[in-house]
Input
Amino acid sequence: MTNVTSSLLLAVILLNFFILGTSRLGACIRVVALQGALLSLLPLFLYGVNIHSLLLSAGALLLKGWIIPWLLFRAIRQVKIRREIEPRIGYITSLMLGALTTAIAFIFADRLPLQPEHMQSLFIPAALSTLAAGFLMLITRRKAITQVLGYLIFENGIFIFGVLLTEAMPLMVETGVLLDLLVAIFVMGIVMNHINREYSSINTEHLCLLKE
Amino acid sequence: MIPFCASLILLLLSGLSAIPGRRGSSFWDRLSLVLGMAGVLLGLGATIFALLEPRPPALSLPWSGGAVFSLRLDGLAAVFLLPAFLLGGCGLLYGTGYLPHAGQPGRSTWIRTFYPLLLAGIALLLVADNGLVFLIGWEIMAMAGYLLVVSERDRDEVQQAGLIYLAATHAATLVLLGMFALLGEEACLTALPAAGSLNVATVPFAQAVFLLALFGFGCKAGIMPLHIWLPGAHAAAPSHVSALMSGIMIKTGIYGILRITSFFQVPPPWWGWLILTLGVASGIIGVAFAIAQHDIKRLLAYHSIENIGIILIGAGCALLGRSFDLPAIATLGMAGALLHVINHGLFKGLLFLSAGSVIHATGTRRMTAYGGLIRQMPLTALFFLGGAIAICGLPPLNGFVSEWLVYLGLFQAGLPPTGPLLAMLLAIPALAMIGGLALLCFAKVFGLSFLGTARTKRDTIHEAPPSMLAAMGVLLAACLWIGLAPLTVLPLLSRGTSQWLGQTALSEPLLTALAPAEYISGAAMLLMLCLALLVLAVRRGGKKAIPRTETWGCGYRNPLPRAQYSTSSFAEMIMHLFNWNLRTRFHREDANGIFPNKASFHSHTPDTVLDNFLLPVAFALAGFATRLRRTIHQGIIGIYLLYTALTLCVFLFLSIFFSR
Output
């Protein structure tokens, strides 16, 4: 089982790099959906098949693999964009930064005072590097849609942490988190539409005018 | 304690019952006055009965969270409570005439709502027996004080004064929170330590407690570098509110300092020296600033700082006596300080109320607009003169008695065998100088306001209504009583002093032996008699009509009222002497040549600490903060997220660093 989860987590980390390095929005959304779907399998492999993990997996798969990507595709169809043209930091640089943060995450996870059963697993470094990749997306991209994607990746990182705690955390909390995510994406889609209508683009920099 | 609590509740009800009268109904207004007066009288009665009992009455009710609502009315609190209730009652009475309800119902209701609340807050904190109750009373007092200061809030200067007051009072509260926390859980939640029960060596943060208390309470009391809020707030508030604030509210700071120092059996000598030095500095610089003022209420406010200085000289003397185990010095110093607390409450209240009558009649606070008021307002002039004599420390009024006690305490240090306290004798010339400067200042105020000829023509000047005169009369009578019969207040002072010293036996025999008050009575009576004879003789002999003309006419044929001495010119010499501290700005154009141009002379004295130091520093800080915000606050969401990420990283690394 450790093998399967490890390869799943490795795949997640690789997908982080793909997202950081690509400019095509459609591909990005698909990859984020794939990442979510992969992650939704984690509880099953980690805790075996029981009602708790089954419900969690099914819910996560439904939301992250299907509903949210569908919402996002609808949004980019409405605002008619295909590419993130001008990120604040170039793709190569953000890839390098992603590699750097992943390396730091691995080193850092080694030094954390963890439970013995999590000591050697890939969970903590994967979670940290996914969080960092999400943060990088949020910081470096200008378009609202890519920022939403960054937010989703960030949430995936938190989800990996959450899986470790599944036994300690009641199902309600997990469900609540997933529902929050759905609502957040829904609201962001609407907000994006409005930004697009006001400024004829979804560059968040126009929102700077609103400061103070 | 039950009647005392009832009086607090009556005061609260008095405040609440004023609210329905805001549309101009005079029924609620009268009800509020009656309730307030009932509360004040009940409080006075409860305090006096508490003094008659051998053990101080106490009340302790269980409260939430392990805390106790505990009150104790001991001798030290009673010394502060008596003038508080007396002046509070006079202020309530005065307020009915000062701001007639029919004229401005809204503003009048505002003051009538918060005035009893301020009094109730003061009374609560004075009887509080643990830190929690004390701070609750303290905050009620602070907030009610703020709301009263801004009662004329449509003027900019009032808003600014209120803001500075609020900042100062909350800085004090913050420091006091820390002080009580250092004093320990029992002092905060259950009961304050008994007097003399703590030892400086064994209490972990004794020195810090003293310094924090000195800062926090010093802010409220207006000790010299911490006095920034005082002149503005006193000038901005309505007069009877200024009277209560200056007479009683700032004394709660003194009460706090005395209460905290009383806990320690043998305070270190430097506490006493520090308080003595601060007292001398506050006294001299306070009165020098007072001389330089043109606004009558700002002037009186600076005199409050001076009198706080005198009280602190007495308290420092007492602390030093306690440190070196010299009971005579400690008793006399503390008795002088406590009596000056009472006296300053009475005569400063009287002065603010009579200044209020003048402002009420003339509509301005600038003394350059007054002149010759004694003809239109003879009774107000008499009351002001009484207060002025008392504040200058002249017999036969009460200010003399308390300064005399402080002098006696200081002179004790010079008696053989002279100990380490010989340097304390240096405070004597300082105290004498304070008295002399105060005399100069009040010669200026009285001469410019009530004597001479009117500088601006006013036909509407009238004597104050009877309610205001009655309030001032009560205060003057109290001043005269203490001045003529100081023997009657010695028992009260000895209760307070022995409470502060932590003695079970009363120090009254010692106090009466050290302070031969009966001679003071005799001398004061004699002086009054001489004065009466003099007045009689002048009346009898004054058949010849005395020609009246402008004061200081300088031999000109047609002197103008404007050519009289002004506030600036009267005080010019002393302002030059003290210019190293006052930093007065003079604007002077002399009359030169055969056909001189227009000549003028005026001066402006900003507050050194506030206007020359604190405000520039605050503005520089605000400018720096604005520039910093422009740099880091750019409105780009990505940058904000970067800040968040960096903060998270820092915390992660810190957690690793410290977990090992």
Remarks:
- Chain B has a mean pLDDT of 88.
- The radius of gyration of chain B is 26 Å.
